[in-house]
Amino acid sequence: MVVMKRAFIIFALVICFATGVFGIYVNVIEPVKKTIGSQGDVRMGTAGPGQTVVLVVERSSDGGNCPNNYCADGWDTIVPVKVPEGWVVEPSPIHETPMKMKIKVAPDAPNGEYNLTLAAIDEGNYDGLGNMTFSSIVTVSRDVIDISVDPTRVETGVGQPAIYNVKIANTGAASDPFEIKVREGEIPAWRFKKQVLVNYGSERVIPFEVVLNEEDERVFTLEVTSLSSPMIKEEKSLVISSKSNILTDWKATTHGLMLFPIIEEPIYAVIGLIGNLL
């Protein structure tokens, strides 16, 4: 029975190779999913200057066409063959599963499409795969994030935090860290910053605190900037109104920082509720 099964697999392989049905492929799984053959290409999506796109490829070399689920061990690494000037591309570590290649866009890359020539390598040709070249296409653009803020105006007490919920949508193909801050000089003595990682194709909502230590109403600019490149930045104009009276002090207890020494959290919840109802 075992001999017959092996004979069938060998016969199937011979037929497939002879007819071209069974080919050698590269199976890309991130940041997009695509199975490509020799000299084929994969469009990776959009990335900004200085950002790093991670190409993730399975080690398997079939395209889902292995007879009776038979296939070789697969590729050993992905390496760069030809890349645009100023780009940095790291080969995947040998035998990494799945294989991950880091592609860093040049920090001064103009907007446009860029073609990279890559190769899947069967080290020593132990699996009889040889090397397979293919193309990776990356679109460079500064427009890879969208932001929104809610609320856009907050009334609070002097020295009390105003909380703004900042939604960052990463529309590009590169996961990236971003910094949130108030434009320098627009809120006196307030230099608070937050850094957050937003994965590609996803969004996060980050609460951001702003404190005004004087009775005033100010319009200020909230900046969200990629730590990979200052060219990737979005801004929103917001308002903080700081007043010193018992009503705004009560409302401020719902924004985080307590006006009075902490006794019990439920007490402040009630005070904040009353303040918002008045």
Structure characterization notes:
With 278 residues, the protein is mostly beta strands. It has 2 domains: 2-140, Sandwich (Immunoglobulin-like), CATH 2.60.40; 145-244, Immunoglobulins (Immunoglobulin-like), CATH 2.60.40. It is 14% helix and 44% strand. The protein contains 3 helices and 17 strands. It has helices at residues 2-19, 246-252, 265-277, and strands at 26-30, 34-36, 41-47, 52-57, 77-82, 88-90, 99-104, 112-121, 131-140, 145-150, 153-157, 161-170, 176-182, 193-198, 203-211, 216-226, 233-243. The strands form 4 sheets. Strands 2-1-4-7-6 form a 5-stranded antiparallel β-sheet, with no helix packed on it. Strands 11-17-16-13-14 form a 5-stranded mixed β-sheet. It has a 4-stranded mixed β-sheet with strand order 3-9-8-5, with no helix packed on it. A hairpin with an 8-residue loop joins strand 6 and strand 7. The longest helix has 18 residues, at 2-19. Mean pLDDT is 84; it is low at 1-22, 63-70 and 257-264.
